[in-house]
Amino acid sequence: MSDVSAQVYTDVQQFYARQMNLIEGADADPDAWAETFTEDAVFEAGGQPEPQVGREAIRASVREGVAGIAAAGLDFRHWFGMLDVTAEPDGSLRTRYYALAVATPRGGPLGVRGSLLCHDHLVPRDGRWQVRRRSVAADGRRD
Amino acid sequence: MSDVSAQVYTDVQQFYARQMNLIEGADADPDAWAETFTEDAVFEAGGQPEPQVGREAIRASVREGVAGIAAAGLDFRHWFGMLDVTAEPDGSLRTRYYALAVATPRGGPLGVRGSLLCHDHLVPRDGRWQVRRRSVAADGRRD
Amino acid sequence: MSDVSAQVYTDVQQFYARQMNLIEGADADPDAWAETFTEDAVFEAGGQPEPQVGREAIRASVREGVAGIAAAGLDFRHWFGMLDVTAEPDGSLRTRYYALAVATPRGGPLGVRGSLLCHDHLVPRDGRWQVRRRSVAADGRRD
């Protein structure tokens, strides 16, 4: 009844869990996170005048983000859910998912900072998935 | 170790992601959402005096809901999680899941409006799943 | 592209959905919940001076927790997500996941009470999974 196999669907779930955990916590590793994107990847966020183009731009941006979160003393979690996966004829995947950003300051209480609608284009590279394009649009914003 | 196959489980996850996205966002399509229910479907919400009986009643109700959300200028997301799926001998499925309703007004901040416990009866129709009965009970309410 | 099969991954998702539902709702069953742990299981929570060692200690603790939630008139839900599963050579599983604790008092409104980072060691017993060790660390706490 589906157009993707269970293996592909759960691989994508696991990929996202591992990807986002790379930048969450005391051992955040922005470089490893950047490697989950292709060299020519594009990261597009609604509200930003220009997308980030290329892994190095994405790396610089996530480094800044991770440093800011650490400086603020926050535990930050990204939840992805309500995942839809569609396979393209060329073997790549189109995904749509919701994201929640949950931040807990030292001593609490936590805040759910944002709800986002996200679309990825995932491509297979060397036996794993990489993000070729990510587009995220924050709810509550009309661009 | 499970009584449902991975394919059935992920198909249901994907079905819910697609179903709920049909009524979330600028291109909300209440008619397409209504088609994810059988013609004789029943939608039962704790606190409502009577369930909605039949796809046309469900369609009318969701149209009203979607129009209300649009009029309020909200981005509204339904998250389903903690999914349990049990297969019936006749090929239908019983599911139980938690739902969160997340609303973001223009300019924010978002609010998590409700936590619900949901039960569905899903039946196979023409190579896809349809909801024959949905029962939702909002936490915090004692009916 | 993954190191676990879709069947294992979805079995764990279903196991968690069933496990946590056992202690959520009017028909909470702390004894059944305790049975999802091995007899020699260890439950470790950041901030507690000592872990709970053994199923009976875990059972006593969850009974107390469930009674406290009932006395407070709360509907309490645990959401697990962003699941990562790794298979060990001995057939056991290591999992990492995020958890949210959502509490709704009678009449509302709900509160998202906590965000946690969790690690489990799951072992196969009699055709199902059991938790041999669970370690949970609440965000916002530096132990």
Q: In summary, what is this structure?
A:
Chain A has 143 residues and is α+β, with helices and mostly antiparallel strands. The first copy, chain A, is built from three helices and six strands.
Cα-atom Rg of chain A, whole angstroms?
15 Å
Q: What is the CA–CA distance across the termini of chain A?
A: 36 Å
Basic shape of chain A:
globular
The biggest beta sheet of chain A is recorded as: 6 strands, mixed
Strand order of the largest sheet of chain A: 2-1-6-5-4-3
Number of strands of chain A: 6
Helix content of chain A: 25-40%
User: What structural category do the secondary elements of chain A indicate?
Assistant: alpha+beta
State the CATH architecture of chain A.
Roll
Tally of individual domains of chain A? 1
CATH class wording of chain A = Alpha Beta
Spans of chain A of 5+ residues with little confidence (pLDDT < 50)?
Answer: none
Percent of residues in β-strands of chain A: 35-45%
- String of helices and strands of chain A: HHEEHEEEE
What is the CATH fold-level name of chain A?
Answer: Nuclear Transport Factor 2, Chain: A
Textual characterization of the structure:
Three copies of one chain form a homotrimer. Chain A has 143 residues and is α+β, with helices and mostly antiparallel strands. The first copy, chain A, has one domain (2-138): Nuclear Transport Factor 2, Chain: A, CATH 3.10.450. Chain A has three helices and six strands. In chain A, strands 2-1-6-5-4-3 form a six-stranded mixed beta sheet, covered by helices on one side. In chain A, a hairpin with a 5-residue loop joins strand 3 and strand 4. In chain A, 40% of the residues are buried. Chains in contact: A-B, A-C, B-C. Chains A and B meet through helix 1, strand 3, strand 4 and strand 5 of A and helix 1, strand 3 and strand 4 of B.
